[in-house]
Amino acid sequence: MVATFVSTSSTPTPNVAADTRQTQLRVGRLTKAHGLKGAIKVELYTDEPEKRFVPGAIFSVQVPEESPWYGKNIELIELRWYNSHPVAFFKDVPDRTAAESLIKAILWVDHDTSVLPEEPEAWYDHQLTGLKAVRDGVEVGTIARVEHMPAQDLLVVKTAQGEVMVPFVKAIVPEVDIDKGIVTLTPPGGLFEELPEEDDVAEETSEA
């Protein structure tokens, strides 16, 4: 996991398989060609690269419609690490030109939704989406999605006033109850309401 209290990277794709237990998980993004032999640097969206990125793994590729890879899958040959950065080699990607045609592609894998994360405080994104966000016993919104940022994961909470991004860390999200459909929040002041302007604070102080 990215930290001890975050979700596994697994945003579901809109195209769910015919079997209702099947969905697709977003596990990576191809960022930059590496060398001349078709290698591509990968931004990992999974906490289990040793399971997801194994030789022979098949990925659905999310690319623009005009891309030659649109509607295709790619097969992993090998994932290597260079200076702590993951670099992938794929079948039918023999050189740098082919690699560059895949830059910014999102990688998806099929996933059985009945399979749960092994760690007790880890969840797939589709388990969190739609849960009620509760603060001080009051519902403030619903979880719209999970954003996976380099520093930490963020819960995007849809409220009546718009979307609020909440850092998915233990101090701010102390409890997730999948069975009850509730995510408990203890956010700092100002996260779900506008903080008063400095001029307003100064005015209130002078009036006091």
Task: Provide an overview of this structure.
The chain is mostly beta strands. It has two domains: 22-112, Elongation Factor Tu (Ef-tu), domain 3, CATH 2.40.30; 129-185, Roll (SH3 type barrels). Helix content is 11%, strand content 39%. It has four helices and twelve strands, in the order ββαβββαβαββββββα. It has helices at residues 49-52, 96-100, 125-128, 198-207, and strands at 22-34, 39-44, 58-62, 73-82, 85-90, 106-112, 132-135, 138-148, 153-159, 162-167, 175-177, 182-185. The longest helix is centred in the last third of the chain and has 10 residues, at 198-207. It is elongated, with a radius of gyration of 21 Å. The N and C termini lie far apart (49 Å).
Question: SSE layout and pairings?
Answer:
Elements: E1 22-34, E2 39-44, H1 49-52, E3 58-62, E4 73-82, E5 85-90, H2 96-100, E6 106-112, H3 125-128, E7 132-135, E8 138-148, E9 153-159, E10 162-167, E11 175-177, E12 182-185, H4 198-207
Please describe the structure with a list of short key phrases separated by commas or semicolons:
2 domains, 6-stranded mixed beta sheet, SH3 type barrels, 6-stranded antiparallel β-barrel, 208 residues, 11% helix, mainly beta, Elongation Factor Tu (Ef-tu), domain 3
